[in-house]
Amino acid sequence: MYKAKAYSAASATSPLTADTIERRDLTENDVQIEILFCGICHSDLHTVRDEWSSFMSTVYPVVPGHEIVGRVTEVGSAVTKFKPDDIVGVGCMVDSDGTCPQCKAGFEQFCPNVTLTYNSPDKHLGRVTYGGYSESVVVDQRFVLRVPPNLDLAGVAPLLCAGITTYSPLRYHGVTKGKKVGVVGLGGLGHMGVKFAHALGAHVVVFTTSPDKKEDALRLGADEVVVSRNADEMQKHAGSFDFILDTVAAVHDINAYLNLLSRDGNITLVGAPPKPLEVAAFSLIMGRRNLSGSNIGGIAETQEMLDFCGEHNITADVEVIPIQKVNEAYDRLLKSDVKYRFSIDMSSMKSESPR
Fold this sequence. Notes:
This protein is of the alpha/beta class. It has 2 domains: 2-161 and 297-351, Quinone Oxidoreductase, Chain A, domain 1, CATH 3.90.180; 163-293, NAD(P)-binding Rossmann-like Domain (Rossmann fold). 23% of the residues lie in helices and 27% in strands. The protein has helices at 42-48, 101-104, 153-156, 162-172, 188-199, 214-220, 231-235, 254-258, 281-285, 299-312, 326-334, and strands at residues 2-8, 17-23, 30-40, 68-75, 87-90, 93-95, 115-116, 121-122, 127-128, 136-140, 145-146, 180-184, 203-208, 224-227, 241-246, 261-269, 290-293, 318-322, 341-345. The strands form 5 sheets. Strands 3, 4, 5, 10, 11, 18 and 19 form a 7-stranded mixed beta sheet that branches. Helix 8 (254-258) links the parallel strand 15 (241-246) and strand 16. Helix 4 crosses helix 5 (188-199). The two termini are 18 Å apart.
């Protein structure tokens, strides 16, 4: 084992502060990565504050971060996919059993024994995994991804979660040229959904409660913007959408969007409201409409997404911050005060004197 600087939280009410953690020595299949940038995901905040304890209690100290971009510094003797100095990414997973039907089908994210990047049982060290708010990480080569060389690395980091979370359902539901696609919400997830749907050739309509977001939605690639509180604007689009990506994490009227779907249209939830949404049966029955959910993507699909981003020069819109401002960023995240993701410049970790 070796020691690495990190930022951790000691309890649900503690701020993130400088710390020292242990990382495992390389096994033959491992890749050691110097972390250059790490995105801040809303799930980081939920986990640090133990707000998802009903299905995943937080083990403290917790080191968040699952949107990792870095440089390979060392590889194990059996590693064939990577070499030192390669620029790579690590997303929400760092291991799975590799033998279950989900893994064999390329859906590692649904493996019953998946190991998440942080706050997940660590078979190597006998504790939980520590994430990307750290100067380095060691990951099995199967869960390391190649980053296209033409992309800005700060903007790549959020692709490892926000990117694949929105790309996967768009691809699964066949979004392409000639399709009419709605994106509900223009935040960290929504702005990526707009970029991807536009790049896939769809006619993109953004739904927002904020009229002042219209200009930015059009800049990101939307063809139209609808203020969802305006019943007349909503009615104009009734029964016309092939697919709607719902990125809203607050409780909202899902039926208003189901009624915008055409026959056999689909609305996919990628936001996670804290309370169940009420679904009217007739909103589904009339038109044989579909309501589904989606959760990130497998490793092969995540690599496909990164390659697609390289081809279309797509990255997240980010505000780059030093690690010392992470607690301030969490507070701003709660107020939706960021366009559209925070990306931590991990070189700022070098000045820390961990406890």
